[in-house]
Amino acid sequence: MEFDMIIHNGLIVSDTTVLPLGNEIGVKNGKISCIGMSLPSGPKTERVDAEGAYITPGGVDAHVHLAQTNAPTGDTWETGSRSAIAGGTTTILAFASQKRTDTSLIPVLDDYYQKARGQSYADYGFHFILTNPTRDILQKEFPIMANEKGVTSVKLYMTYEPMKLTDRDLLDIMISCRALGLTTMIHAENSDMIALIIEGLERNGNTDPFYHAIARPRIAEDEASYRAISLAELVGAPILIVHMSSKVAVEHVRHAQARLLPIHAETCPHYLFLLSENLKSKPSDHFCGAMHVCSPPLRHRVEDLEDLWQGIANGTFTVFSSDHAPSKYDHPGGKKLGLVNGIPMFSKIPNGLPGVETRLALLFSESEACLPPAEARLSLPRFVQLTSTNPAKMYGLGGCKGSILPGYDADFVIWYPTSSDQAPTEITQKMLHHGVDYTPFEGVKIRNWPRYTILRGKVVWNRDSGKVLGEMTYGQYLKRGKGEVLVGKSSLTPRGMLDNERDMWMPKR
Ligand SMILES: *[C@@H]1O[C@H](CO)[C@@H](O)[C@H](O)[C@H]1NC(C)=O
């Protein structure tokens, strides 16, 4: 058999180990055919020389908002997915967002699918954002979504007026998800605490962007995270708490994991690199803090960042996602919605930061690939787990995405060799490919960048030539299977309950 592509002279990183130099990857028909020494080339084999650099699986970014109707000024599928591959991410999971008035998910998925189809440089799938979980949806449509459409995860909000769900809603949804093997993602912040604080801040005229970070204190995240965990424990459902930013909330997760509960946690680049001081106004621009408005907000102290780095290193976090949520800054329908008659009103600023392109380089730069062991924040296999393998497994793409193994899609990032001086040393808006007019990471130091991105055996990004080589029609819709539970186990008896107590009231599967 003749390989279509052989990648040689690289250090292949898996989720458990780094293979020694000399191991090569043979690619055939877009899939990894084998890994071995001195693979034979044929006349048509494309040989890619990694020049001694690390090769990691193509990034899987499981938390990307693109072209949602509630954020019209940010990225289209074209710009968002282009940005992904230029940053080494070959798979993105975006959201199909149900409105309260939508009584069926089927047209919602169709709508979002039509926006993405033929418009994506990266492979993609959807999670549902559920805001109106009718009985019909839970009982009739969930099985269709899981078994026919390949949508095997839902995201639930405990905050935001247009989207928040009651605890009862959360429980009903978790029970349905558990029965079908769907993954439940939860945005955990206490809505009433936040509403109370916003009201008080506004009453006192404290409406600058910085007050966004005051309006959503850590305790709101801590309480809601613990509540989400308790709800999940009651019904024995696995959950993932998304974009965690607070030490105490993460401790709740850690304690739950220690009790073998299937509680997963996600964090994002901005909670590791950025502080709330970014929300303050500058003399040149009173409103610029709006560029860093996201929820949960950026926290105040360097120690807050350190706490999260600990969870990255010690395994508390299962996945590391961008939560790419793009809104243009200098646009009346974007962040400037928060300028009301010229007066900053933080509560009206659209939430979210762009970051799909910068996610991998930021974390890789802090890994043992770029730093001596004493300074490195994480190992290379841990980098691969967090950015590719775990999200792929959790969201039903195991066996296809997120690992460098025979039979998997030939999706790779080839980095610059450690000795190279070709990689950029700091992030600037100018080098990015998204449709947003700023990056929240402007000036943040990095130590490497994806040199080549390969998607299903095709080089779609070559930084040396400064080019996105892929085509917008190349990205494929991914019908996902059931997600794997990567932490703990389901069906433990909740603390203090008798062993058969839950069976007395739990709906039969
Ligand atoms: C791991 O990190 C988390 C988050 O900072 C922390 O709560 C936990 O105590 C750490 N666990 C261990 C065993 O170090």
Structure in words:
The chain has 509 residues and is α/β, with parallel strands linked by helices. It has a domain at 59-395: Metal-dependent hydrolases (TIM Barrel). Helix content is 27%, strand content 17%. It is built from 12 helices and 20 strands. The chain has helices at 77-86, 106-116, 135-149, 167-180, 191-203, 211-215, 218-235, 247-258, 269-273, 302-314, 359-365, 380-394; strands at residues 5-8, 11-12, 23-28, 31-37, 46-49, 54-57, 59-61, 89-97, 123-129, 153-157, 183-187, 239-241, 263-267, 319-320, 339-340, 343-344, 412-415, 450-455, 458-462, 467-468. The strands form 4 sheets. It has an 8-stranded parallel sheet. Helix 3 links the parallel strand 9 (123-129) and strand 10 (153-157). The model has no long low-confidence stretch (mean pLDDT 97). Residues 247, 250-251, 254, 307, 310-311, 314, 316 line the site of 2-acetamido-2-deoxy-beta-D-glucopyranose. 2-acetamido-2-deoxy-beta-D-glucopyranose binds at residues 247, 250-251, 254, 307, 310-311, 314, 316. Its EC number is 3.5.2.2. Its cofactor is Zn(2+). It catalyses: 5,6-dihydrouracil + H2O = 3-(carbamoylamino)propanoate + H(+).
